[in-house]
């Protein structure tokens, strides 16, 4: 009987109850199982604050909680730069595109980009690009489950893979049952939990150093080697021109990718008007800026309070460094579950659940609506609604099973590989398509095809021959070396290529259209653009 009263057993029992509560919430808010369209969107408009919190939660898991804390802990200032880019990304979204998104309504990113084109190859090209961005990000979200298993004493590879499969199956079940409404509820819960837990942990870190930020920074630098590079530039990718270019390229990916992912764009496009979209993006930006401010202290706290060997095992993008900090603040050993560690475990699971759920929804929506052979953005007649719901769930299950298996097989692969692949595809392919599709002139089908094809090939080829895949300690193949591209991210080449392709084809299509009509375009006068067309007789 005394074994059942041990703190570790009680904590794990409460954690299982928490998981059961997440499943119950998904069942409680589950939409009509017969409606395929209600599977991918909530059905009614949320308020500005709930939508903003959901947006912050969608950006937060990949940009501010699970990975970038590790960069602050091990690389210092370089990690702070990435965190600031993550905080600035929704600000840029609000000022740049949020106001124009409600005019491009659609269930998927592909429907928004190709709304002026007939359903066909162009839409399928966009759907394929969305999967290239969403699937790696989904795999990267599931990987921390294997590292969390190590914290509770399961260190052998089989047990870690089993945890990924079992926990991933629970997440897939929650996503399939709760659909868009359940994912949104979990996202709001994630944002609320970290808005509560993160400042508390930041205060606890500062209290360990009597509120002296200078002492915190000095201890963090000393724990990470005391060479002076920790509080300078080059701690993540090294010094020199190549290291600085790599930092600029990766920071640009975070800045232009964190808040411009397909599922975030589709959520803001569902706002009733431009003002509501801007206000929701503003709430998300404010919440994320607050969390990033506390995350900076947490990152330096991890560097100062967690052993250097433990951080080195997790790598520069370790997904459970926050749990290691909770263990240090609790004063417990690895494998023990203290009070703070219990809340962090719940928050991390809820974060993975919310993020993976919305990524599963986004990927399966692209499969059903973009890659499928169905047409229009509106709901099909009632006779086809049951089939739509079945296809939606089958697509989600297939995508989820594939991602869970890949995550279980790649438990030792650095999450940086998946993040670079996802963010680079977003900023080099999806962002140019979105920008030009929201312009005054509709983007031609040829621009969509060649932008997706060329930039995706550039990204995949350069990543295969980059230090991410071979030649470094945390590469996919650490004991081989065929790297020829010196930078971690290929975005410095692929992003200009994507925008240039879209610009060239859009301009050519406009010129061909004007020539076919026999028009003559008059330059701008008095701040307005007027097209005067003379009919040739």
UniProtKB/TrEMBL annotation:
It holds the Pfam family SSF. GO terms for biological process: plasma membrane acetate transport. GO terms for cellular component: plasma membrane. The keyword Cell membrane applies. PROSITE patterns: NA_SOLUT_SYMP_3. It is a multi-pass membrane protein. The chain crosses the membrane at residues 9-29, 65-92, 125-142, 162-180, 192-209, 247-269, 281-306, 340-361, 394-411, 417-438, 450-470, 482-505. PANTHER family: CATION_ACETATE SYMPORTER ACTP, SODIUM/PROLINE SYMPORTER-RELATED. This is Cation/acetate symporter ActP.
């Amino acid at each position: 009987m005394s074994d059942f009263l041990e703190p570790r057993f009680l904590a794990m029992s409460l954690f299982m109850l928490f998981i059961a509560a997440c499943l119950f919430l998904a069942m409680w808010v589950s939409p009509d199982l017969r409606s395929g369209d209600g599977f991918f969107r909530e059905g009614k408009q949320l308020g500005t604050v709930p939508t903003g919190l959901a947006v912050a939660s969608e950006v937060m898991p990949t940009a501010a909680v699970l990975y970038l804390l590790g960069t602050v802990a091990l690389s210092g200032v370089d990690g702070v730069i990435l965190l600031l880019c993550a905080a600035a990304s929704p600000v840029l979204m609000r000022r740049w595109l949020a106001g124009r998104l409600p005019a491009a309504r659609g269930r998927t990113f592909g429907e928004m980009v190709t709304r002026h084109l007939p359903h066909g190859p162009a839409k399928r090209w966009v759907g394929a690009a969305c999967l290239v961005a969403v699937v790696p990000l989904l795999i990267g979200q599931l990987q921390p489950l294997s590292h969390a298993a190590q914290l509770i004493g399961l260190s052998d590879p089989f047990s870690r893979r089993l945890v990924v499969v079992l926990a991933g199956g629970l997440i897939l079940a929650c996503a399939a049952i709760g659909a868009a409404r359940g994912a949104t509820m979990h996202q709001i819960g994630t944002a609320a939990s970290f808005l509560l837990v993160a400042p508390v942990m930041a205060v606890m870190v500062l209290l360990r150093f009597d509120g002296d930020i200078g002492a915190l920074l000095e201890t963090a630098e000393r724990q990470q080697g005391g060479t002076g590079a920790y509080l300078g530039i080059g701690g993540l990718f090294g010094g020199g021109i190549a290291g600085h270019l790599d930092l600029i390229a990766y920071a640009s990916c975070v800045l232009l990718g964190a808040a411009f992912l397909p599922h975030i764009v589709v959520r803001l496009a569902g706002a009733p008007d431009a003002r509501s979209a801007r206000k929701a993006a503003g709430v998300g930006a404010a919440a994320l800026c607050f969390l990033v401010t506390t995350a900076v202290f947490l990152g330096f706290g991890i560097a100062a309070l967690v052993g250097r060997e433990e951080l080195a095992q997790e790598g520069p993008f370790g997904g459970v460094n926050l749990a290691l900090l909770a263990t240090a603040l609790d004063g417990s050993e690895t494998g023990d579950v203290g009070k703070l560690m219990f809340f962090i475990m719940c928050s991390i699971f809820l974060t993975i659940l919310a993020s993976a759920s919305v990524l599963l929804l986004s990927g399966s929506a692209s499969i059903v609506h973009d890659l499928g052979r169905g047409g229009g953005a509106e709901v099909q007649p009632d006779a086809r609604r049951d089939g739509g719901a079945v296809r939606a769930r089958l697509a989600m299950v297939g995508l989820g099973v594939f991602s869970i298996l890949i995550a279980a097989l790649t438990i030792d692969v650095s999450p940086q590989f998946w993040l670079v692949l996802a963010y680079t595809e977003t900023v080099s392919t999806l962002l140019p398509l979105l920008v030009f599709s929201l312009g005054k002139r509709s983007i031609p089908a040829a621009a969509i095809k060649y932008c997706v094809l060329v930039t995706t090939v550039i990204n995949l080829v350069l990543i295969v021959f980059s230090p991410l895949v071979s030649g470094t300690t945390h590469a996919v193949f650490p004991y081989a070396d065929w790297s020829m591209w010196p930078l971690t991210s290929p975005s410095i080449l692929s992003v200009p290529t994507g925008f240039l392709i879209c610009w060239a084809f859009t301009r050519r299509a406009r010129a061909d259209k004007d020539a076919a009509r026999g028009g003559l375009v008059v330059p701008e006068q008095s701040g307005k653009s007027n097209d005067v067309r003379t009919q040739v007789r």
